[in-house]
Amino acid sequence: MLNIVLYGCNGAMGRETGSLIFEEKDVCVCAGVDGMIKKDQTAMPYMNYPVFKSLYEIDSCIIDKADVIIDFSTAQAADSLLDFVEKKHIPLVMCTTGLKSRQLKKVEDISLSSPILRSANMSLGINLLTKLVAEAAKTLYDSGFDIEIIEKHHRRKLDAPSGTALLLADSIDAELNNRLGYIYDRSGRHEPRHNDEIGISSVRGGGIVGEHEVIFAGMDEVVSIKHTAFSRRIFAQGALKAAIFLLSKSNGLYSMNDVINSSYNV
């Protein structure tokens, strides 16, 4: 039995992940952690696990049998999580976006003594998209194509641009030897577009689960590569695959590309 601690269990993604795990054999949530304990905590059948306000409140008999932590919380809650992982050396699947540079550095440092998988997006499609746009950029950028990224999410999303938009931009920029700058707002500029930039635009509204489009705009043709998420289930599925992947891994920092390559023996 794979025992999972679900960090951020009462958020939208926490509930989606808990529901998915409830349907799986040989996998269970042994404890949930969330700063907000909801009144309907036991209203749904899949919420059949104890919920604590912090990791340090979890009974030792529960935490001792935990195999992995799946994190779908917030950047504000990340420091406490990382401190706990550093102390207990429990494998961590970190799905939270909007982390600050110091937090990202802390993730790298802790991965030296604990297996950590961090990804801005847990879906198979998005992680394939990062490879496709990098390949496209290699061919099109030096031929004069401008690169723009448009991301759309629901009105409740806290960070902008999305972690996935930055993941795509970083993939493109790395392929181009880090030559590009990221432009998030052109409202204060009165000048033509520069060649050495990627424009990243954010849309927030309604219940949009997630949509990312990378546009390669030439003078006489445009190439667009787009991914649309129709439900949160794809991210929960990716997180569970990542958790299973980490069980056999030594200390280190991993990504969803490692999971995908392992699954397909690439």
In short:
It catalyses: (S)-2,3,4,5-tetrahydrodipicolinate + NADP(+) + H2O = (2S,4S)-4-hydroxy-2,3,4,5-tetrahydrodipicolinate + NADPH + H(+); (S)-2,3,4,5-tetrahydrodipicolinate + NAD(+) + H2O = (2S,4S)-4-hydroxy-2,3,4,5-tetrahydrodipicolinate + NADH + H(+). This protein has 266 residues and is α/β, with parallel strands linked by helices.
How would you portray this structure in words?
- With 266 residues, the chain is an alpha/beta fold.
- It folds into two domains: 2-118 and 232-263, Rossmann fold (3-Layer(aba) Sandwich), CATH 3.40.50.720; 124-229, Dihydrodipicolinate Reductase, domain 2 (2-Layer Sandwich).
- The protein has helices spanning 12-23, 60-63, 78-88, 101-110, 124-140, 163-175, 233-246, 256-263; strands at 2-7, 27-33, 51-52, 68-71, 92-94, 115-118, 146-153, 181-183, 197-204, 210-217, 222-229, 252-254.
- It is elongated, with a radius of gyration of 20 Å.
- The protein starts with a strand and ends with a helix.
Helix content: 25-40%
- Number of extended strands: 12
> Helical segment tally?
8
What is the CATH fold-level name of the largest domain? Answer: Rossmann fold
CATH homologous superfamily assignment of the largest domain: NAD(P)-binding Rossmann-like Domain
Biggest sheet, spatial arrangement of strands? 3-2-1-4-5-6-12
- Outline: elongated
Find the structural class using helix and strand composition: alpha/beta
What's the Cα radius of gyration?
A: 20 Å
CATH architecture of the largest domain: 3-Layer(aba) Sandwich
GO molecular function: 4-hydroxy-tetrahydrodipicolinate reductase; NAD binding; NADP binding; oxidoreductase activity, acting on CH or CH2 groups, NAD or NADP as acceptor
Keywords: Amino-acid biosynthesis, Cytoplasm, Diaminopimelate biosynthesis, Lysine biosynthesis, NAD, NADP, Oxidoreductase
Domain Dihydrodipicolinate reductase C-terminal: 125-260
Binding site for NAD(+): 8-13, 95-97, 119-122
